[in-house]
Fold this sequence. Notes:
The structure holds 2 protein chains of 2 kinds.
Chain A: E1 7-16, E2 19-29, E3 34-38, H1 45-52, E4 60-65, E5 73-74, H2 80-89, E6 91-94, H3 98-101, H4 108-118, H5 124-137, H6 154-166, E7 172-176, H7 184-201, E8 204-208, H8 212-218, E9 221-226, E10 229-235, H9 236-241, H10 246-253
Parallel strand pairs in A: 3-8, 3-9, 6-7, 7-8
Antiparallel strand pairs in A: 1-2, 1-4, 4-5, 9-10
Chain B: E1 2-13, E2 19-31, E3 36-40, H1 47-55, E4 62-67, E5 70-71, H2 77-86, E6 88-91, H3 103-113, H4 118-131, H5 148-161, E7 166-170, H6 178-193, E8 197-201, H7 205-211, E9 214-217
Helix pairs in contact in B: 3-4, 3-5, 4-5
Amino acid sequence: MQKTPLFSVSDLSKSYGAQLGCCDVSFDLHPGEIMGIVGESGSGKSTLLNCLAGHLAPDRGDVCFDVDGTGLVSTLAMSEPEQRLLARTQWAYVHQNPRDGLRMSVSAGGNIGERLMNVGARHYGNIRQDASSWMERVELSTGRIDDRPATFSGGMQQRLQIARNLVTGPRLVFMDEPTGGLDVSVQARLLDLLRSLVQDLCLSVIIVTHDLAVVRMLAHRMMVMQRGHVVETGLADQVLDDPQHPYTQLLVSSVLQV
Amino acid sequence: MFEITQLSKTFHLHTQQQAEIPVVTNVGFAVQPGECVALTGESGSGKSTVLRLIYGNYLAKTGSISVDGTEIVAADPRTILELRRTTLGYVTQFLRVLPRVPTTRVVAEPMIQAGHDATAADTHARDLLRRLRIPETLWNLSPLTFSGGEQQRVNIARGFAHDYPALLLDEPTASLDRANRQTVLDMIDAAKQRGCAIIGIFHDHAAREVVCDREIDVSQFAAA
């Protein structure tokens, strides 16, 4: 692993009026690292993710990214076109609900191709070829390339969303409850797929979830949030097996054993 | 290879009446390369806790644990991950893997992580599975469907796939039949021969006699 951070967050805070979103969050992410962020609903984890990905403007703090391997630069100080380019090329965002990340009226192939066209691809044959190979990669039948995502199952839609996000070769992927609305057997398949993609492409990932099993299987490190604050951070298996903070202990001990 | 001094561990259970459970205190011992040391002591004396502290799976607050010159106590998570990737292996009694991943891949993964070529890792994984008598018909299936004994052998194959210079073994021969037990003992011995330092928990008394050079009774570190 590279020894310098790819992504760095310092003292990030965001509140909605009197309502606290997240407060004083700081961490570094290195290339190939997977960071899990857990906490109950309302703990501020989605607010945090949205601030990190540039969807929300934080009140305080900074979010820095190493755009071209020459060191961290503030993404908040970038111009809007620069931010957009970053979001389309080096970053990707996987929504919990695939409908938020897909264009439901456009074919599966079109959904993947669109992101390529956004970064300048124009050759129809190449775009279709890339779309088709990415469908295979996420285990979707290429025979469905001209079908609309509305005709896909939830698990297939989620895999399509992942293909659409990864086709441009991003280095950092934000994921918001990617296994959220899926039934258990589909979750396992998606987790397995995510893990091999992350490994093969050496992606850095920030994954927000309330599912501790997802964190155990995917994350190297984790952060536990409660009421907007990070109450515990550390090596994922250590935090899960020997939690220190009362809230983390409660969270871990509340998981039903199967 | 392992150097442990003044190590203590207490669990604070905030959700259960703020209970404080001191497990071990003032643990101190060292293990040289090529040496295999058995942790002994009755159930609950803290043998597994000591292994987990060394692996960085439990958080030590006081004392020092040095593995190949790397300090574990208060180490950055990245330091521990890197140590686990290259230097420190851990064979537990329980297999924890993602569903759907084929057995060969499960076994090959630590080698790939450590930087070996995927094809070489796969060949080595198959070799280990063969040695541990996992039927070849099962190799492309997920080990989660296997019997308890088969899962344990897959776990051992995985733990020995990469030639770690330091190994932690938690009951590696428990519930194995005679032939497989002998295979595992041979593997431990081979690891020692190439200079691997090993700390293990062996309830199997005879196995302990064969592979261990020394015993450390963990109950001497019992917290008052």
